[in-house]
Amino acid sequence: MKNAINSFLSYCFARNLAEHTIRAYKTDLGQLERFLEPYFENGVVVLQNIAKLNLRDFLRNLGAEGVKNRTLARKTASIREFFIYCQKCSLIETNPAETLKTPKFENRLPVNFTISEIDKLMEIPDLDSKFGVRNRAMLELIYSSGLRISEAADCRLGSIDFGTQTIKVIGKGKKERIIPVGKTALRFLRKYLEIRTKFESKESGDYLFLSKSGQKLTPDELREILNRYLTLIAKSSGYTPHALRHSFATHLLSNGADLKSVQEMLGHSNLSTTQIYTHVTINDLKKVYKNMHPLAKKEEDDSR
């Protein structure tokens, strides 16, 4: 199994899958292998001898340890993809994960910042520091164009067209899309580009955002930097840098953008993925209605 996992991960790299997806596959499959080792002679897991019951026991054991259904669903997906690969490569004759059921879980509504919170967030970086200028440019760009953190990390100097006020992004599945960039974001990107030479080194290449050592900022490094700012305004736990992307979509829809346009800007393959943001905006509309409509307020007062 160990050799098969390594081969599968190499295959994923060759397909240019997202870094965090490959990392999740490695974690989940390594965990499965360690669980199965006591059931095999000398702890060597034989791929062909893995049964569906073994996989169900693994997931059931995790559930008993308190692992939530959302995480179990992800691990189930990892296992399923791995065994599909193994069968295609003739490493196994039958797929033990073929009929493995995915645990059900509730779709959580995405968390997002209010516009006033976004304004406060943007004011936090110290513009007297080269790091503050860089970080303000990153915050503005991610919120302005709804970028994934990995997409922001992969931006090149030629990605931004100041003339057309757009950015070219390579998203999931290496799909290219062109997204508008707001004037404020462009202004701070220009400020950053003026001092980018202060970050440069021989390893910089043409990547847009550079670390203090002059190398490309990795997605994990970018998340760590942004988290320092987000924690200062987050209302509760769960506000990750991805909340900037959620805020981008929610604010667009709240201000009248059509769902199809938001889908294209986010790079979602299916409209159903984007539709979750309509639930957020509807909830916001309900709050406004409840607080502002005279009859709604009267009914609430009467119920007291």
Condensed summary:
With 304 residues, the chain is mostly helical.
Describe the protein.
By secondary structure, the protein is mainly α. The chain has 2 domains: 87 residues, DNA polymerase, domain 1, CATH 1.10.150.130; 127 residues, Intergrase catalytic core (hpI Integrase, Chain A, Orthogonal Bundle). 57% of the residues lie in helices and 4% in strands. The chain has a 3-stranded antiparallel beta sheet, with no helix packed on it. A hairpin with a 5-residue loop joins strand 2 and strand 3. The protein is globular.
Defining key terms:
mainly alpha, three-stranded antiparallel sheet, 2 domains, 4% strand, DNA polymerase, domain 1, hpI Integrase, Chain A, globular, 304 residues
